[in-house]
Amino acid sequence: MVFSWFGLRKRRVVAHTLKPRQEKVEREDKVDLSDMTPDVVPYLGQVAYFELAVFESLTRAVTAAPNLEAKEGLSAAAGEVLAKHHGLVAELRKKKVDPAVAMAPFAPAIDTFEELTSGRNWYEMLLGVYLTAGFLDDFFVRLVSGLPKALRPRVEEILETDRTADVIVNLLKEGIAADPKLASQLALWGRRLVGDTQLVARSALQLSGNHDDDEQRLEPVFTDLIAAHSRRMDELGLTA
Q1: How far, in Å, CA of 218 to CA of 171, rounded?
Q2: What is the pLDDT of residue 30?
Q3: Residue of 71, 86, 109 whose CA lies nearest to 199
Q4: N or C: which end of the chain has fewer CB within 10 A?
Q5: Measured between alpha carbons, how far is 161 from 85 in angstroms, rounded to an integer?
Q6: Whole-number pLDDT of residue 23
Q7: 184: Cα separation from own chain's centroid
Q8: CA 206, 26, 190: angle at the middle one, nearest 5?
Q9: What are the tens digits of pLDDT across the range 18-57?
Q10: Among 14, 24, 13, 12, residue whose Cα is nearest residue 163
Q11: What does DSSP assign to residue 39?
């Protein structure tokens, strides 16, 4: 992977300490998607591989980081995501399922998605991780209602225990403050990410085959997810 460093200056980027979120992501679960949730093994396999792909993206960001402070913060964030992956893998093993076998069907599409959302430079890479992981984690939590009752709280806790956003947001804010031109570049990149991310979400659904009915039910779900995406952009001072 080759990253463009054009426009990046050497500067001290403060990587703030990870801290627990004060609030869970607000979700208006008005639409019951339990009948659209895949079977347990495909669900766990897809989500586990997605978290592994996010971890790999963060490790590339660590390698490309401009200073040690950023490397340290991002390495901690990568560890948080890897823990989520391990938690989902543990659930597969409880079911006597080989995690590699469960994840394999989803690897090609998710690998392609990660390539498409990796960005042209370090800051686009960070924004890509922040926005796509936030969007898809929110979406996968919405599908938890279709899992077996005993499994639901464990998976929900795994997906909602995420303290990586603070680190990435602070690094992005530092970069934007140091180079105001970066904001317009990242705003455009953030808007471009939405379409591909929605496609990944839709690929996880077990649809009824009635296109009009499915779309009518899903419209408010994706409206809420896009609204959350816009709030993440707003937090960075970017226009969604």
Answers
A1: 34
A2: 61
A3: 109
A4: N
A5: 12
A6: 41
A7: 22
A8: 75
A9: 333 434 444 444 678 899 999 999 999 999 999 999 999 9
A10: 24
A11: P
Q: Look at residue 221 in the predicted model and tell me its pLDDT.
A: 94
Helix (H) or strand (E) holding 158: helix 152-160
The per-residue pLDDT for 211 is 79
Which sequence spans correspond to the domains of the chain? 34-235
d(CA 69, CA 9): 15
133: Cβ contacts below 8 Å, ≥ 6 apart: 54, 81, 164
Q: Is 89 exposed, middle or buried (0-12, 13-18, 19+ CB in 10 A)?
A: buried
Choices 1.20.1260.10, 3.40.50.300, 1.10.8.640, 3.90.1170.40: CATH for 34-235: 1.20.1260.10
As a dihedral over the C-alpha atoms of residue 32, residue 36, residue 41, residue 47, rounded to 10 degrees, the angle is -70
pLDDT in tens, 196-218: 999 999 999 988 778 788 888 89
Q: Which residues of the chain have pLDDT under 50?
A: 1-29
Question: Whole-prediction pTM value?
Answer: 0.85
CA 173/CA 171 separation, integer angstroms: 5
Token reading at 139: 């979406």
**Look-up of token digits 């690094």:** 171
Write the DSSP symbol of residue 25.
P
**Of 100, 101, 99, 103, nearest in space to 90 by CA:** 99
